[in-house]
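Researcher: Structure prediction, please.
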Amino acid sequence: MERYLEFAINHWEMVLALLLTLSVLLITERRKAAPSVSPQQATVMSNGEDALLLDIRTPADFKAGHVIGAKNIPFADLTKRITELEKHKDKPIIVICKTGQTASGAANVLKKAEFTNVHRMAGGMAEWTGQNLPLVRK
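Model: Predicted structure follows.
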């Protein structure tokens, strides 16, 4: 531990640069990500607030198993198919992907298109299936 402290004192400029870089990265990541909701919160919002569950996985992944009532628009097609979501512009939209990572990018696309109430499901379908929640398979 003493060696780390000695390094930090002797190379304070490098430590300061690292801390500033990490701070900027964290601020940037927080601004671009939509708020996350748990699978349980997603279910409550879908049932109680008429939230749209938007599954951005590929059609093959969607057919293999998806949340009841989810709409599938693959992330690659989202910008050209965004007009399909116009009637949900002011309603809650919960973006679902495989692991919860790609949902942030899709949420950003929706926010830029002036959708006002966008969320992402934490952990994506991996979390949903990990909790043994029901799936529709077609």
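Model: Strands lie at 36-37, 52-55, 71-72, 93-96, 118-121.
Researcher: Thanks, that helps.
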